[in-house]
Specification:
The complex is a heterodimer. By secondary structure, chain A is an all-alpha fold. Chain A has helices spanning 2-10, 12-32, 44-177, 183-197. Chain A contains four helices and no strands. Classes of the chains: A mainly alpha, B mainly alpha.
Chain lengths: 198, 240
């Protein structure tokens, strides 16, 4: 109704101009028309029959042929999108797994490397210690040997000194009293003197 | 000037008479068949390639498909999708009838009350039958408004029944009147173009504008008919 009114208003100038023609046309309609053709029942059976035929034909065509095709297209697109999404998800999961694997490899390598470093360091320390100990022992042995040699030398020297002292005492006694003192007596006298001195 | 009602006269093309019944193939029948062919042709042509990324024609077809599917889901619920082919056919048939009727020299079969009424009463009868088939005798409770006071029921039920039974009439008259009025207006103003001579440009402009309006109306009326069918379907399936 509103649409009718609006078009009437927009066409007002034309209507004014056409007023005489319109009036004539209206008269003509009155004279010639026997009412709305839509209300003529003689055409009803044909219209209903052909409506039923064409509608059912279109329904059958759509239902059996056209709509399954459209549905298939839409469904295949839906499937494709879903499959693509699935694949993307799978790829992401794989990438995540690869990242985890990579991190594990790196961590393993680091652990192994630090283990090796620690082992090497320990080995070196142990080697050093061993070498040090060996060296110490060697040195100690050498010191010992030197000390023994010194001791022996001293002992020898002392022993020599003893016999020299005995001989000196024998010789001195001969010179002083002209009498040869036996070696044993000289040794005893020396021992007594050393004992006294000590 | 031509009679603006003359365009609605039914002209038989092939006279057919079956048992005294005039079933002639008329120009109305011809345009029904053309609509069937055009609607079917559009859908088949649109899905010819079944491309993943649709072309223009395929987009039109998919749009129509999803438009009607959405209409049914929104108005009648998911259960209504069982009747998708019928409702899609209804929409396409009316839409093509309306649209092709706007082609000059064409005949608009939806401008006849008997056609629109036959469609509306069929929809009405089938949907009412569906209501009783789903809910049995309980469907009669549809005519008792929920929460109405007991004393009002004798008054309300007849009103509900009348308003229910008026549905096919309003459904068919709305479509028929819109189509008839639009075509009459077009005819009247087109008649002025030649009658006014030099000043004919004014009614010509109006005719062009009216034709644009009529395209909208042609779509809108097909849509309204379909939407109301879906709403009636909803009533039959869900009752309220």
């Amino acid at each position: 109704m509103q649409r009718l009114l609006r078009s009437m208003i927009t066409s007002l100038p034309a209507l004014v101009l056409a007023a005489p023609v319109f009036a004539q046309a209206a008269d003509e309609v009155h004279e010639t028309s026997a009412g709305l053709p839509q209300l003529d029942p003689s055409s009803f059976p044909s219209q209903i029959f052909w409506l039923a035929v064409s509608f059912l034909l279109l329904f059958w065509l759509f239902r059996t042929k056209a709509l399954p095709r459209v549905g298939e297209v839409l469904e295949s697109r839906q499937d494709r999108i879903a499959a693509d999404l699935d694949r993307a998800t799978k790829l992401r999961e794989e990438a995540e797994a690869a990242l985890v694997r990579y991190q594990k490899v790196v961590a393993d390598a680091q652990a192994k490397a630090s283990g090796q470093i620690a082992a090497t360091r320990e080995r070196l320390i142990a080697e050093n210690t061993a070498r040090q100990a060996e060296l110490d022992a060697d040195l100690a042995a050498k010191v010992e040997a030197a000390e023994q040699r010194i001791q022996a030398a001293r002992d020898a020297a002392l022993a020599e000194l003893h016999s020299v002292a005995v001989e000196v005492a024998q010789a001195a006694t001969q010179r002083l009293i002209g009498r040869e003192v036996p070696r044993a007596a000289a040794e005893a006298a020396l021992a007594a003197v050393t004992k006294e001195a000590a | 000037m031509a009679d603006p009602l003359h365009q609605f006269v039914i002209n038989p093309l092939v006279p057919i008479n079956v048992a005294g019944l005039d079933l002639s193939f008329t120009q109305s029948s011809l345009w029904m068949m053309i609509s069937v062919g055009a609607a079917y042709g559009l859908v088949m042509l649109g899905t010819r390639h079944a491309a993943l990324i649709p072309g223009r024609l395929q987009s039109v077809v998919e749009l129509a498909y999803e438009f009607i599917a959405g209409l049914i889901k929104d108005n009648a619920g998911r259960e209504g999708m069982r009747y998708f082919p019928a409702i899609f056919t209804l929409f396409m048939f009316i839409l093509f009838g309306n649209m092709l009727g706007l082609v000059p020299m064409a005949f608009t079969f939806t401008s006849h009350i008997i056609v629109t009424f036959a469609m509306a009463i069929t929809v009405f009868v089938l949907i009412t039958a569906l209501g009783f088939a789903i809910h049995g005798a309980h469907f009669a409770h549809f005519f008792v408004p929920a929460g109405a006071p007991k004393a009002m029921i004798p008054l309300l039920v007849p009103i509900e029944i009348i308003s229910y039974c008026v549905r096919p009439i309003s459904l068919s008259v709305r479509l028929f009147v819109n189509m008839m009025a639009g075509h009459m207006m077009l005819k009247v103003f087109a008649g002025f173009v030649t009658a006014l001579g030099v000043f004919g440009f004014a009614p010509l402009a109006v005719t062009v504008a009216l034709l644009g309006f009529e395209v909208v109306v042609a779509f809108l009326q097909a849509y309204i008919f379909t939407v109301l069918t879906c709403i009636y379907l909803h009533d039959a399936i869900h009752m309220h």
